[in-house]
Design brief:
Number of domains: 2
CATH architecture of the largest domain: 3-Layer(aba) Sandwich
Strand order of the largest sheet: 6-7-5-4-8-9-3-10-11-12-13
Largest sheet: 11 strands, mixed
Helix content: 25-40%
Bound molecules: adenosine-5'-triphosphate, magnesium ion
Number of helices: 9
Structural class: alpha/beta
Order of helices and strands: HEHEEHEHHEEEHEHHEHEEEE
CATH class of the largest domain: Alpha Beta
CATH topology of the largest domain: Rossmann fold
Strand content: 15-25%
CATH superfamily of the largest domain: P-loop containing nucleotide triphosphate hydrolases
Radius of gyration: 21 Å
Shape: globular
Number of strands: 13
Distance between the termini: 48 Å
Amino acid sequence: MIGLATNTYRFVHILLYFNSNFLSYMFIPDNSARCRSGVPGLDDILGGGFPRGRCILVRGDCGTGKTILGAQFINNGIVQYKEPGVLVLLEQNAAHFKKDMFAFGFDIQSLQESGQLVLIDASLSRVNLEKTSASEAYLHNTPKTPFCVSDVVDYVVAAAKEIGATRVSIDNLPALDNLLKKVETSRDDILYMSGKLRSIGLTSLLLCDNLKTRIDDTENYVSDGVISMEYQYSGPDMGRRLVVQKMRGTKHSEHIHPMKISKGVGIEVFDSGV
Ligand SMILES: Nc1ncnc2c1ncn2[C@@H]1O[C@H](COP(=O)(O)OP(=O)(O)OP(=O)(O)O)[C@@H](O)[C@H]1O
Ligand SMILES: [Mg+2]
């Protein structure tokens, strides 16, 4: 009897040992430390989701799906995980953004009305308008009160505290260059923004165009993670692709993954096939 118990104990022990070794090679979801995007296929290649409370840079050429990814992250946070979120638009105005995102099933207006989403429209077309409401803010910009990154960050912090947000998407960083009337976004501004967002524990997606004119890539280094999106126009890898370039503290996929954008769904990421 004792022999049987000892053998069972050994068997369980061996099983646990092999399982723990085997699992360490898999992408293990850790929901407490991970902020799930809910984007089909993405969390699996990120070891369960984005590391919580970190700043993730989403880079890509125009039209590669950055805006959709940011909106999907915020929409899914609310709809699937009951995590309120803040969306900052520095480029596209709120009305166009909402209309475009509705096609994917992201009902930004309803989420605002339910008090779970705050949209901050700081797009160039809006910066001279002064209007705020509970769920939407237009930043004010006049020669007396010029656009300033700390204003945007203050709005985000106040909004996040008010609705209990855990996530934010900022779309898109190079637009700061125009708003600040500088050739390139300064290192200090990016450092200030990312530092402040981390300090209040927000998991942040910073969306960023790959501009050939930009010489400063500070954002790559100050971010805790970098996801790169691209479009291959020819060859066997033709189509949309996504790669996790870096994700601090995470065992993530190092492969290039095909992805798709479709109506009613948004972004889907597929197995690399490797
Ligand atoms: N309803 C739709 N169904 C399928 N694909 C769509 C739909 N609407 C847009 N798309 C695709 O998504 C692309 C735009 O994605 P998105 O706006 O997220 O890109 P982006 O990387 O943010 O671009 P930009 O650099 O211009 O900001 C379009 O160019 C188109 O290919
Ligand atoms: Mg965009």
